[in-house]
Amino acid sequence: MWVRRSAIRPVPGYARIPSRALDSVRDGLAEDDDEAREQLDAGFERFEQAQPILAARVGDTLARPLDDTALALGYFLSLAIWLAFDAALGDRVAPVTEQEIDATDELLHLDEELRRADPVEPLDSDDVVAMEQPHLLAFVHEHMNATLEVHAEAIDVDDVHAVYRLVLVEILALSYAVKRPAGYPVAKTELLA
Length: 193
Description:
193 residues, mainly alpha
């Protein structure tokens, strides 16, 4: 399903992350012991090696003065998203360039502007991203809602919004970086994008 008007490019079917990849990430990150921390550190090192420019953008965004809870949420979600792509697609995810991150950020910004300009538009930009990567957005919402419930009075919502926007850009940038499998037909929407 595609909305009638959006600046966000469609995500090809072969780039969508299945729920089983997120279940694997969830299981791997659920433990709270030394082994789990070592796995997180190793995962972040792999993220920095496989996606150096994207990891640097995540690091730069999270290096700003942020609420401690929002900061922890940002590191967790950005790593979990990459781990899901890595688990599901492995080396089919090309390294994201600075230009691709900037273009994706601009697409999201333009889509937000289009929706603000149309008072009868029933969807937000994150709804469009959720249509393209439903399992990833459900995972993100699950963890953001849990964090907001626990830390409702102590967390800075502007910082949470900055983290949320960062992970939306990460999700789209990684989605667009997935290489088409050999023999996979080119969709009309990909030709037009």
